[in-house]
Design a protein that fits this description.
about 40% helix, 10 strands, alpha/beta, TIM Barrel, single chain, two-stranded antiparallel ribbon, eight-stranded parallel β-barrel
């Protein structure tokens, strides 16, 4: 399954992002069968939610919305505040922005920076669930031990975690934890490594300071060369299959054991069309064996 990640359409830290193009991308995703969207208050300080609601219109009731909770923003600095009071207030703000009475999936954005006990945070999420404000809840960016403990303490249903051909931490402990009984849903984000695996960048790119990739070491020096060598091989496989490298990279993640869905961002309808082609490849395991072989040659990071 492929979902639409909304970080880019929030507009902040992604260079020039035009709302009209973002709206068109969301609508193209719905047209192409994408039925769930992953957003967060952090994405443009709520702007991604506003764009999403505008784009979906009456179709908002027909799709699944996953959002996040816990980030407190002070100027340009963001930290995780998972005190029960903030979790509840942050959730109420999301309900208002999204214009819904209940959030389908509420996820803790990342572990608390203020030392709030996990039990207190999970208790607040259960309280919201019992009040009918959220249907399900899960965690994002948690390590295996904390995730294991959270499973023991609460009825959480999912983990959101980075996973790509270049980033493989999920395979080093998390997969075992999510595979317990009952298994957790796994939503894998950054399957394209912020665009690095699309094939768009033939040489180390220069981004404006308003783009967070200007400070991402994966787009520089030896790490970029390593990624580019992998993409070169990925492009050869993609040409034989008749898709883009982006579709292969996303599809590989979505096909991996333990993964429920891959979250792929897009800022234009054309990027959406490239991304969703991954879904058509899911029933062809031989492709993923080839892609895994390519990844094995180059390793991860």
């Amino acid at each position: 399954m492929i979902g639409f990640g909304c970080w880019t359409i929030g507009g902040q830290w992604w260079g020039t992002v035009r709302d009209e193009e973002s709206v068109a991308a969301v609508r193209e995703a719905v047209t192409r069968g994408v039925n769930w969207f992953d957003t967060a208050p952090l994405y443009g300080n709520g702007h991604a939610d506003e764009v999403l609601v505008r784009a979906l219109g009456s179709k908002l009731a027909d799709v699944t919305i996953a959002t996040k909770v816990g980030v407190r923003i002070d100027g340009e600095h963001a930290e995780s505040d998972l005190t029960p009071a903030h979790v509840i207030a942050d959730t109420e703000a999301s309900l208002t922005r999204l214009g819904v009475e209940r959030i389908d999936l509420l996820q803790v954005h990342w572990p608390c920076d203020r030392g709030t006990p996990l039990e207190d945070t999970l208790g607040a999420l259960v309280q919201l669930q019992e009040a009918g404000k959220i249907k399900h809840f899960g965690l994002c960016n948690y390590a295996p031990e904390a995730l294991r403990r959270a499973r023991e303490l609460s009825p959480m249903v999912s983990l959101q975690t980075p996973y790509s051909l270049l980033r493989r931490e999920f395979e080093q402990g998390l997969r075992q934890v999510v595979g317990g009984e009952p298994p957790l849903g796994v939503l894998a984000y950054e399957p394209l490594c912020r665009g690095l695996l699309t094939g768009k960048f033939k040489a180390p790119p220069s981004f404006p300071e308003t783009d967070l990739r200007a400070r991402d070491e994966r787009f520089q020096g030896a790490r970029f060369r390593h990624a580019r060598a992998l993409v070169d091989d990925l492009e050869r496989v993609a040409a034989k299959v008749g898709v883009t490298p982006a579709a292969l990279a996303i599809g590989w993640v979505a096909s991996r054991p333990g993964v429920t869905a891959a979250i792929a961002g897009a800022r234009s309808p054309e990027q959406v069309r490239q991304n969703v082609r991954a879904a058509a490849l899911m029933g062809r395991p031989q492709i993923w064996r080839v892609v895994s072989g390519v990844a094995a040659i180059h390793g991860g990071s």
